[in-house]
Amino acid sequence: MSRNWHRKMLLSYFPIFILTLSIVIFLSFLVVNEISRSETQKANRISTGFIEGSLEKAMRQVEMDVLRTMENDALFGDFMAGRIGRSNEDVYDLVKGLKALESGNELIDSIYLYRESDQLVLSKYGLGRTPFADRAFLALALDHPDYRGWSALRSYKLIGADKPRQVITMYKRLPLPFGHEGMVVINVDAYAVSRLIADMASGEVSFLHVQDADGNLLFPYQVKDRGSLLQDGDVLTTLHSERLGWTLESGLRTGQLFAWVSVISYVWILIGAAAVSFAVWYILYVTRKNYRPIQVMMSRIQALPRGMDSTGRDELALIDHALERLIEQSTDYERSNHENLLVRRRQLFIDIIEGDVQADTWMRCVELGTLVHSSETVHAAVVISEFSPQELAGKGYSAEEQQTMRLALMNLLQELAREHGLDGWAEWVTGGRLGVIVTSTDEDGMFERLRDAVRSANRWTAEHFDMTMLFGVGVIVRFASGLAESYRSAVAAMHYRLALGEEEMVLATRVPAQPERDVYYFFPMMTGAVKMFRAANPAWRDQVMQLFKRMERDLLADQEIHMLIHWLIQMLGKELAGVSEQFNPYFQGAGKEAWSERIRQAGQLWDMHTLLLELMNENYRVFVSINENKSYRAMVSEMKAYIEENFTNPDLSLTLLSERFQVSAKYASQLFKEEFETKFVDFLADLRVLHAKKLLVQSDAAIAGIAVQVGYTNVITFGRVFKRVTGHTPGDFRRAGLLPDR
């Protein structure tokens, strides 16, 4: 035989191998370089972000320390209010307090306070009057009192004798939060900030530039030629702090970024060369080693009595064709045998439960691997469960999924029976009915073990198929002769699933022996319930309860129960049809069909009772609300009048309204919103702010006093609500002399 395949494999593999390896090596270079750059940039951004966060935290700490002292120290409040003058001995304590603040934080350069009433300036030098060395900045701050950030880098000295220093400044109006008596000015040493940044930044590999809003360099500090800084390397990260107004630019110094990448590139070249050498050797070795078994295989295929024509075919094509034919024949045989076995098992199962037991029945059981009991001493029962293909389709199961579920349930029930000391054989009798023959040599405790197996089956189906199964359990009989009787009793039990369905089982032993009885004596109970409903008598619920208890006691069949509930719903719909069209969606068209379907799907009698009560309660609430509509509007009007009379009460709330008008707070809120198209809290806030506007314009009362007069115990809360409603603070509103809107 020719060695064409041997040469083909060598010539075919080498180009693919070389091309693939070249691509892998090339991509490796790209990936390594890109990963290196990406990770470097990510690390640079993380470190720069950390520095930015640390700077914001440090500057925020400076601001909070000073403002907390201004707010909590009564001396500073007295100074801003004008109660401390030049000759007052408290000035010494104030100066001492300022010095303590400056020395308490290494970033703080200086702090001074400006009192607007008499233009006095309090600093560590004492108490003085403008003009002073920093008056230009103070004038700018007074022109922009609402500025909340830090200034750009500036030259600062408080008095003429001071040496100018580079600082960054923040100012706040005092007293907090609105401020109308003056301001505090906080100066942070630019050199101290630069030292703080230097402690966090590493200058050996990376560089960092920090600029203020005007482009002044804060770090590196006191560098004149910014152009020379750009020679450090490429900027990889640029962050802007909204709180500080600073811009941080960082990157790696030239020559440091990819120096180590070149080393890795050389390593990859060596690895690639070694891989090529090894691959060439390995292909030669494997080709030579594996060719001989293929040659032996071809010899055997050609030696078959019905050998194949090998003309024009290479070795692999011939082997593939032979294996394909062999697999097809094996698969066809197995499928045919399996389908035949399933059909024979199912037909045998149906023959046994229908009583068609012949002489060779037990021999067929042995052959098919099913139950092999033939002794009359063995006890047995037939258990059935019914499924509607339409019901399963409604749950979203396709035809293939339904078939898979049927096979899974058959195997599950057989396995669970064995786990609980029983023998089980399960088959689908029809497309929607699953039957199980359960046998045991011990009748004692058989029902208890069967009940445990049913519970286990329902837990499994609820977890995997999102459904609950109901089983009808036939009477226990002798194995051979009584299975047909057990099957008939199990089918009859399924007709009483509503009244007898208990723990997912309906026992045939509890099915009444008497034939179906007349159910018309239930009509007086249904008529009484409907009349009580129409009279708005809550006792209708008790009447419905008695109706269901009577159906449970009399053990009505499912068909009879469904008929009675259908009549009850029809009677209720006719009674309510003349009251209002609001009831039509429940008793006409699609709404009626939806409710009827929900009730039909109820698994037990008391599930049906719950659904019926839900339907009737919904209609009862609508019926009662129609009768009480007039009193509803009167209560809403009284509620509005009470709010307008008592809006100055700080304790006025939905809870207070609910206690006064004897309704729930949730219901009071709902009534208020439906009637006035606004929330209670917004209505109350508008009412209080309107009154506060008049007091601010027409009186000289303090803002805190006005807040109390309109119902706010906290002036800060009053200011926040006032600004949300009007867009102005109370102080700005009074100074502008705005008139109330209404």
Shape descriptor reads flat
Structural class of the helices, strands and pairings?
alpha+beta
Helix content: 55-70%
User: Could you name the CATH class of one domain?
Assistant: Alpha Beta
Strand order of the largest sheet: 3-2-1-6-5-4
Cα-atom radius of gyration:
46 Å
- Number of helical segments with 4 or more residues: 27
CATH superfamily of one domain: Reverse transcriptase/Diguanylate cyclase domain
Mean pLDDT: 76
- Straight-line N-to-C gap: 110 Å
Number of beta-strand segments = 16
Residue share in β-strands: 5-15%
Main beta sheet: strand number and arrangement?
A: 6 strands, antiparallel
Unreliable segments of 5+ consecutive residues: none
Detailed description of the structure:
With 742 residues, this protein is of the alpha+beta class. Among the domains are: 79 residues, no CATH class; 171 residues, 2-Layer Sandwich (Alpha-Beta Plaits), CATH 3.30.70.270; 108 residues; 107 residues, Arc Repressor Mutant, subunit A. The chain contains 27 helices and 16 strands. The strands form three sheets. Strands 3-2-1-6-5-4 form a six-stranded antiparallel beta sheet. Strands 11, 12, 13, 14, 15 and 16 form a six-stranded mixed beta sheet that branches. Helix 8 runs antiparallel to helix 9. The radius of gyration is 46 Å and the shape is flat.
